[in-house]
Design goal:
The complex is a heterodimer. Chain A is of the alpha+beta class. Chain A contains 15 helices and 13 strands. Chain B folds into 2 domains: 233 residues, 2-Layer Sandwich (Cytochrome Bc1 Complex, Chain A, domain 1); 180 residues, 2-Layer Sandwich (Cytochrome Bc1 Complex, Chain A, domain 1). In chain B, the strands form 3 sheets. A 7-stranded mixed β-sheet of chain B has the order 1-2-3-9-4-8-7, with helices on both faces. A 5-stranded mixed β-sheet of chain B has the order 11-15-12-14-13, sandwiched between helices. In chain B, strands 6-5-10 form a 3-stranded antiparallel β-sheet, with no helix packed on it. In chain B, a hairpin with a 4-residue loop joins β1 and β2. The chains are: A alpha+beta, B alpha+beta. At the A-B interface, α2, β5, α5 and α12 of A face α2, α4, α10 and α12 of B.
Amino acid sequence: MEARELKTYNLDKGINARLIPSEKFKTNLLSLCFNIPLERETITFASLLGQVLKSGCAKYPTITDVSKRLEQLYGAAQSFSTRKKGNSLELIFSYNFVAERYVGEDTLRGAAELMRNMIFEPYLEDGAFSAEYVSREKENLRRAIESLINDKKEYAQAKCVENMFRGDPYGIFDYGYVEDLDKINEKNLYEYYLDVINNSRADIFFSGPMDEEAALGVIKSEIGSRLAPRDAEYAKTFAAKERGGVLRVTEPVQASQSKLCMGLTCRCTDIYALLLATSIFGGSPVSKLFLNVREKLSLAYYAAARVETKKKFMLISSGIETDKFDEAFNEIMAQLECMKTGKIDDFETEAAKKYMKTAYDAVKDNQRGVEDFYLSKIIEGSSVTIDEQLQGILNVSKEDVVRAARGIELDTVFFLKGEMK
Amino acid sequence: MEYKRIKNERLDEEILCGVHKSGLRVYIIPKRGFNKYYAVYGTEYGSMNTSFIAAGESEETVVPDGTAHFLEHKMFEQPDGRNAFDLFSETGASSNAFTSFDVTAYLFTCTDRFYENLDILLSFVNDPYYTVENVAKEQGIIGQEIKMYDDDPSWRVYFNMLGAMFRNNPVKIDIAGTVESISHITPELLYKCHKQFYNPANMLLVMVGDIDPAEAEKYIDKYVKPEFNVGRPERVMPPEPEKIVTDFTEQRLSVSSPMFFIGFKEKKTGMRGRELLEKEIETDILLEVLFGKSSDFYISLYNEGLIDSSFGKDCEIEPDYGFSAVSGESDDPQRVFELVKERVRAAADSGVDMSVAERVKKVMLGRYLRGFNDIEGIGNAFMRDFIGGINPLDYAEVLESVGEAELNERLREHFDADNCTLSVIRPIE
């Protein structure tokens, strides 16, 4: 049997190192991930934290100092971000850098040291973060939140999710909220930071070309040694509740085009069938939505669907002419009906399977893609590999697809209505 | 077909280069260990080629703005009513196409059945099918696409900058054209452009992955016929003054805060090969030295709240046009513009700090090496290089060789504070 591509080493209670060795890449990716529950009270803190940590540490106190250090490490890319995973949020601190063999320098040691400096030895003033940095990054975050409207497609999707999941943490906007910023200061953000690094579930991913033993040694000494054992579990995700009706929300915007987003609940527990059904319905350029709504009827410039299997939630997203709302909506629903009644040609199923095979094989060529796949699986408590998940999808029958489709119900219609003055 | 093998031991990478008997330039970049294969079939024909003299004609042909992009959309349609996307879907490949200023390219990514996909790619791009009906239908679809771009602030701020920078150069033309311009497109016109620009003398094929050159050649033989070679159509480029058109342009759209692009216009055109690569690398180093994250400029504007993490910089130095730009969001783009000009003037006086430049060169080496992880990225970037007559494996060596004198010369010639422009998108009041 082939060795599993992910190798897990338990470093201490609640702390694991995850190695993904691969010779084909020229870079390594080192990521420290903390898992916290999605909560309205802390989301803005979580979103702000990475930006403040990025501003400097005790050893490199300013952005300029940090940038110079990154440049010396052959332009290592530093990314501190958050990622919504079902009802949990991952705080991910990562460094992507050229592997030792291509530059003849111990770049892993350099990056791991810098990670230790940045995450565990932050720049402090009077036992808290710098007031100046916090206020500067609050302003930046405010701008980032407000600029969501600049991308109408993203904006409509976020608003659809928010409207559909009122009362469920999943509806929380993961950038945070402008109205929370006033409450945040250098002291309470620092307390929040201590809580996250000391009490949340921690995973350290390392992928790319490596000597496993040496890599594990560096990870243990630079990162593992700074993490105390912890009791935390991964935050649990619960399925979307069915509304028993349809919520309709329209918001006007000054634009010549409109965006139609639809949120749906999925009852099916067979995630492979659900993934394949979504692909046939709206997951590729050969999907029903693409071929009918976009190509055949020219009702939309884009029309696609994706699914969050753990949350049992499907999102349909399209860009349409404002006066084509009814036609586009009706056609999307008609295509969903085709799925439910089994009007699916064999070639559609085959094409979707092939499309997914290509997509999963391609994930394996992308370091961040592989890391993200396994991070999701670990949170879900699953040990499935990329190949196993793909095989599961390829084994799905048309009957399974139809059964999955029958459990899909429209929940929310969000219309970002373009109006030109 | 004879292939020349270019190898770089330090990078552990190589390229095979050959010319097919039809005149088609063929490149293979072997990547082992990856699941993906990538092929991109490109023609040196883009939105800026609106005027040309066809082979065998003496009169200039002028086509409507947006024709190259329109042609790209229409290529996927097959005479039997099917779409090339359908054919790729049968093999599980993901396919796409793009039109830029000077290139139109058709591509696919797959993880198996590479040669079947190559067969589809070469077949559909060499088999045009345009009718009055299918042209009319496409006018509707592209009309939607154009409207989407019209609403897109990041697209508009960029094209408004090009319009402010270039007086005659057709690079300033919106890639998709306008609803009005594309209404003049006819099947006859598309056939003519296809014959002229989609001929082997004007095209290249780049393949990335564990590919057998002899097997690939069979498919090239099958679809790319020597008789298609009508020579390269002569491009008619209007003369372009060194001077920009205006130093300021503004538009209002639905955005949260103002977006800006500040552009420096390239004065030299017609560069190719190593010279082109040198100029591009020098410009990239200078952008990083002047405005990079470790610069005093960046941190002082960032601390003042004048720029945020959306701040970026880029350059495009090509044979027919060139510019570099810094961009971002700011409540006071005018002030950023003044500070950018101040920065380049001060740098021109003091000269480039070589300790900074050496650090920046490490960053660029890292970025270049990282690029080899990305199969599609290599294919696209190397295609651009091949068109410009550049050997992509020379990059690290050229980067190393750039010295103080070249950087200072480039700084003074390209970053001209008296010949740069500011484009702004402001929120609707």
